[in-house]
Amino acid sequence: MQNSGLQYLSASTDASETRSPNQHLLPLTAKVNPQDHLEIGGCDVTALVEQFGTPLYIVDETTLRTACQQYREAFKRHYPGESLVLYASKAWNCLAICAIVASEGLGIDVVSGGELYTALQAGVPPQKTYLHGNNKSSEEIQLAIENECTVVADNWSDLKILAQLSQQSIVDHPIRVMIRFTPGIECHTHEYIRTGHLDSKFGFDPGQLDEVFQFISQQPGLVCIGVHAHIGSQIFELQPHEDLGYVIIDTLTKANQYGLNLSEVNIGGGLGICYTESDDPPSIEEWVKIVTDSIVNACQQKQYPLPRLLCEPGRSIIGSSCVTAYTVGSQKQVPGIRTYIAVDGGMSDNPRPITYQSLYRVVLANQMSAPMTEPVTLAGKHCESGDILIKDAQLPKVESGDILVVMATGAYNYSMASNYNRLSKPAAILVNDGDANVIIERESYQDLIGKDRLPERLTLNP
């Protein structure tokens, strides 16, 4: 029997099973209903499309919460010290997503004033909010410290701004600072998402740390609470994370020489997810055990007290919880070469294929059991030859009006979306136990021109 969309449900039919969400292609609640339609969060995807239109981001609340819970509970099991999981919200930052992860006890990692403002408006506790970024403005840093958030200093510019603001006494409390450095650890991932090697725009080089720690020790308004290092994203290897623990604890002992008693370490994130059936990432549990064992062993070796341990997963929390639904439009057959199937979205709602050559899988949501007999190329509608979502996909016979669902689109799809070709950004909905709620409204044409301004001299008189 030929494969159908059902093959992707084999590991996704029971939300209570022990495999972690990052090891699933579809959300944990995905199943096929009696109408042979894909169902997520108790909602028929074709009915969702009828109600909300396409393209449509569909976020399964159960999958998102399960990922948060598995991270939080795994750290409690494996780390004998205090820990805090931060959601790396650059993967998808909006009010609803921030509110959900905060309600699960997680903190938030933000990388801009906009992400910070959104997190605070969503009710994320400031003491659990950490501001990153390699080119923070004074205004962004000031927003963070006025709200008593922690600032992760990435470079000398950050430190000088922080020192200046502390001397101006714009706040009546010490400014909490962490130091980000490049640990010099390579991992096998896309070149653009490797951040731990020495040739990186992020973080201080290890050779600068003596000068950095000396500078901070001379700033009474700054309290350096710890260090941060991150080795990359979409990583399937565990060894680099094990190596990172020893590098980080070595750095803490160096800070002691300058009278700094650092109590926190942030080992970053980077755990990969399944985008295709051939992907085999470690589970959340396996990843947590490796990083916690690494820190514990390094502390024992260096006779250093266990620090508060932070991590900041993003993709592995949100990625598998979301799918994107499209409506099929035109088709083009190039004899002897390929068949193009066009959908009503593309690179403006998912720029990862054209940016990173990322691979995805797709199902026909209104015919889940139909055999996949047709090799096709799934094309977007943008005026760009490279706007290809999936090359050489396997699908059933597809007709105009069919509903296609691309899997694992929660991470860096909405957050990197654009208005290229003046397409309006899609709506996003949250599904749970048969209920569907809009968490991001679909943009209208009026929204597209809402910030445009037409000088009076350019106005055409009738």
From TrEMBL:
Residues 66-318 form the Orn/DAP/Arg decarboxylase 2 N-terminal domain. The active site is at 383 (proton donor). The keyword Amino-acid biosynthesis applies. One of its GO terms (biological process) is lysine biosynthetic process via diaminopimelate. It comes from the Bacteria. It is an enzyme of class 4 (lyase). Pyridoxal 5'-phosphate binds at residues 270, 312-315, 412. Its cofactor is pyridoxal 5'-phosphate. Coiled coil: none annotated. GO terms for molecular function: diaminopimelate decarboxylase activity; pyridoxal phosphate binding. NCBIfam families: lysA. Homodimer. This is Diaminopimelate decarboxylase. The gene is lysA.
